[in-house]
Amino acid sequence: MSWLQTLPLKRRSFRAPETIVECNVKVMGGSMTSPVEFVKHWEEVAVAEFQQDSSVLVLTISAGIAIEIKLSHYILHQHSIMQLQNDKTIFCFNVKFCPKLFKDPYNRKQRISCRGTRYPEFGLLTSFCVQFKNESPITSRLSWYLRYVDFAIVHTQLSVSDQVQEMNLEIKNFDNAYAWRSLCCQGYKVTNQLRTLGLEEILSEECKYSDVFTTLADHLAGKPFFHLKEEMQDAIKLTESYGFDNKVPKNYTMVRRAVLTPSRLILLSKEPVYFNRILRQYNADYFIRLVYRDEDFEKISGMKYRGPQHLLEDMKQHFINGFTIYDRHYEFLGCSNSQLREHSFWFFSSYDGITAEFIRQSSGDLAKERCVASYVSRFGLCFSSSWNTLTIEEHEEVRFEKDVTRNGYCFTDGIGKISKRLAAKVAKSMDLNIVPSAFQIRYGGCKGVIAIDPSLGENREIIVIRESMKKFESNSKSLEVLQVSRPVFCFPEDYQATYSFTNSGDLRKAMYKMPYISSS
């Protein structure tokens, strides 16, 4: 194995030339199993278009599908491999994220998903080899530009081989199967080397290797190529040395997570998640938190492309049909308003007769909600991260009152009351040393803020719920707290303080001597 690396060019200003186009360009997709070995999974003839002003190489293949390879360090790995032949030059790009696909090759505004095309496994490709003619203007220009933007051009003799049949492993444990699929989600750079591991012997042992696969997947995510057998041995040693027995913080639980992109479903390891009402009532092991992202893990915006209908339709199928991992089928459950803004959703796998529909019906009476947005918002109250404090019965400790209104204005919208004694009990259940003056709560189908009202009596334990706080009927009697009031530091840059400085000389001199103002 020999590498010859060229130095990057010194930066200088230049005028970007017009777009360079070359036809009948050979494109191969696959993975690098070593610095000099490329495994080919598919091959196409494309029209190559290099747009230097936007740092993009566009490869238009059959059916009018355009592959956009962004020539940036965020998308590509540092080393770009270049092989010189008699009359041809091969560029090999190792990608960190799957290139984006477009249906319209001229303006590249209609994004599409690889699912439903001739390339359903396009998202598993981790390397692309593009072959140009030596005398083509795009060859010299592309080589110069890569060095100009500080990529390392490596000259080597590249060995190209065809793919081999993938291994079919029989895994009997869901945790191992999930971690194994999470490892395979890294792409062909992993699956092309599996036959060198002797995994049949590893999986036949009476051991839980989900931690090993999880560690290995995390380590391989940022590497363009590697020796998989050595990486596996390092992952086993690391897992045996440190393990995964970290204590989960109080009021947290471990939940699996996944990222859905237009090209693939990426399974990730468990992460600590703050409890919500649903996770407290059911087994958290059967939940998965799914986030919808673009190929580069950025949120997909409708303003960026000319109507992402194809992507939305692909996303819709996952919400309607769900997805399967080993022996579990996950169905869409719901999300909170904040999670919806982040394109994050909860999916659930049925167990012991408990289904996603059963959870929705058991959470409260939402039959009156005919608007989809209102339904999602109301049911999303159950997914708010909260601290479970006390169980409060309505007929004894809860009083419902009308809102305070005058001249068409509501002065108590979402604001209720709590007695001082009950507030102290809530604070004690949360291990707080000081009793807050207000609590942001969820109680059944009610949401809002309750503040301490001394007029409710010193010895009474009662909360007052306003009509504006009640969103739907629910049988849940647990008082859940999202946040509590706490001191807030106000600095002299605040508007009120600045206004005082400019209108009162004595006050200004006095306040200048204060380091800060604290208010609660």
Give the overall form: elongated
The description of the largest β-sheet is: 11 strands, mixed
Radius of gyration: 30 Å
How large is the count of helical segments?
15
CATH topology of the largest domain: PH-domain like
Distance between the termini: 67 Å
Structural classification: alpha+beta
Describe what this molecule looks like in 3D:
Belongs to the RdRP family. It catalyses: RNA(n) + a ribonucleoside 5'-triphosphate = RNA(n+1) + diphosphate. With 520 residues, this protein is an alpha+beta fold. The protein has 4 domains: 19-162, Roll (PH-domain like); 174-242, no CATH class; 252-383, no CATH class; 387-484, Barwin-like endoglucanases, CATH 2.40.40. It contains 15 helices and 28 strands. The strands form 5 sheets. Strands 1, 2, 3, 4, 5, 6, 7, 8, 9, 10 and 11 form an 11-stranded mixed β-sheet that branches. The protein is elongated. The N and C termini lie far apart (67 Å).
